[in-house]
Amino acid sequence: MIPRKLLEATFRRFWLLLIPVIVTPLIVVALTRTTPKYQSVATVWVAQPANIGPAALGQAANAYVSAADAQSQVIRDLLTTKSFRGDVAKSAGLPASNAAINFVGSSVQVSTAGSNLIAVVATGSDPQLLQAMVNGVIAQYQARSADESQRQTAIAVQYYTNQIDVANKELDTRRAALTAYTAAHPNAASPTTVDVQYTQLVSAVDAQSQVVNGLVTSLQDAQLKAASAPQSLQASFSVQDPANLPKTPEPVSLTKRFGYPIAAVIFGILIAVAYVYITYRTDHAIRSSEDLLGLSVPLLGVIPDLPPLHSRGLGRLAPWVWIPSKARREYARAVAASISAVPVPARGGAR
Amino acid sequence: MKKLPEIDSQTRLDLEEAIREVHLIAGFDVGDHSGTAYADRGVRPQRLARRSIAVGVTSPDYGDGKTTIAIALAASLSHDFGTNVTLVDADFHTHSVERQYGLEGQVGFAEVLAGTTVLPDATHDIQDASIRIVPAGLVSSDPARLARSDRLGPAVDQMKSANSHVVLDLPATLHSMNAPALAQRCDAVIVVARSGRTTRAKLHRALHLLRDANVIGVVMNRQRSSIPTWVQRTLGVRA
I need a surface site. Which of A4, A229, B69, B121 has the fewest CB within 10 A? Predict the structure, then answer.
């Protein structure tokens, strides 16, 4: 049997109990409600980055890191820079603002899809913008990679050219010294004689010639690298699946669609139950005859909470004004009848 | 059908009144022919002694509705039972009854207890209500002294001798030391508890203070149930 007081506590402010049950799910739905999300993806085949990243600094590639991991890490690193994000935003047609830069950073993700495949993914509400951003990331990466390659090869060509000049001057000096020595000692070059100084001069000239040849080879390599940079970049970073234009939004998970609202309803019910329990436990007021049990006094009568009488103004002329008046009289008469029925022993007064 | 034996007119009147009272207690509508109908059916007449009782109405706190109940009780006893009723404002703190009937500033019960006036001079006939009112009066001395006056018993007796019922509006028990003293002079005391406001502890304490009085029961005032009717019906909860 449910205690009457518990029911009273439940229904006294029933609307108050409905607030957490209704409002909590609404809040959760409002917080988890998102605009339809689209996703544009481009898949790129990659080799170990040669012109950008650690390899560009002369460091050997980590054998334990796949080409996809290395390249995706390079792109992620670039995406942390404002200039790269700004360039991507600009290429996607976004205004050059901090909001746009932050939007690019939060929308674009790079992940690996194998040892040589990376996926550039952009998530957002505007399909065309997403496609443009993915294309922008790839284009900016390729441009940066090409620039970096060009810069490095230019530096290398310049370096080797300078080194060759110096080496050639040294070679000329050594050759001059050998010529002077041969002129002074005509028999020094004779195969029958052994001239130590002549031999040293010849060895110095040969060694310098090898240095010059090595530098020339390196210069040629650098020049070859500079000439073939676009082709090698294309080979090490090849777009397999261009960025698509998403047609349908990404599906919302069942947890987000139903799980959170149901959990919120349950949470609201728990709040309401806790409120009812606290109200019930802290309510010590007398509300019904059940609360008089144990007090050893009978309940003579119950007078309900009647609406006020229309005893003033035009209210007294209302046709229904007799209803509360009659009700009052009925209750008063019932109480009076109860009192009359109680046997009263003789006390202070005369009979 | 067996006929009732011949009885005198006074006995017949008493019998009709008793039957009417039983009807009221049972909640039946009381018509002019009820007594006769029962007499015709062969109900054995039982003579009820005429009672003259003093009923005190009090409550644990002020604002519980004791004055309203006292006025309603007096009016009902007068109207529905046709008895002579005097309503006494014995609450020297609030003077609620005399304010209800516009008797402020009139001599009343306080003067009777102080001995400065006699009861007939302090009694006011209310024509519309068909009851007599004794207002609280101009309380100048200590109300506690008035409640313990030797004239209290004779004054109540005098009112009882002239009325079938004397209804006394007593002070709130937990707020006045006069309430238990005045209640002891009543034949019966009704304690009014306001539903949803009077706590069980307060009612218990009030009943403890009134332990020397004849508390005949509790009237629950302004009861309001928040439980919808269909819930009460489904769960079998009594209204």
Answer: B121
